[in-house]
Amino acid sequence: MKRKLFLEAFLGALGAKKILWADFQLDKVYGTVVYDPNDEEERQDFVWHMNESNVPNDDVRKLLLFLSENNLMDVDKIIKPIEELNINFIEKNKLETVWNDLFDIEVRMIDDGEETDRYFIHD
Length: 123
Hints:
Blueprint: H1 2-13, E1 18-24, E2 28-34, E3 43-49, H2 58-69, E4 73-74, E5 77-78, H3 92-103, E6 107-111, E7 114-119
Antiparallel strand pairs: 1-2, 2-3, 3-6, 4-5, 6-7
Helix pairs in contact: 1-2, 2-3
């Protein structure tokens, strides 16, 4: 399931330690981000309006994993200018599109049953 793999990378880059999956619908995924498994207050419900065929490509997921593994995120902001990052695992002619795809992603937060804020990444 591409949506699940992608969300694990995306929300993981934003600090998720675990994701509790609630529901997979044709065009939505519901779940809860767990930031601290020992603190019930450190959780956030979410919905991602996305169907399986429109999930960003694997280069975007690889970029997310790179950002996480190299501690290049401060909450939702990339801490170094993207021009300074050595991204040698994505073809140079595709890199701008991959960055744009990453910056276009929004996962909506849910509070008291209503979509409120959103998860996103920016530079």
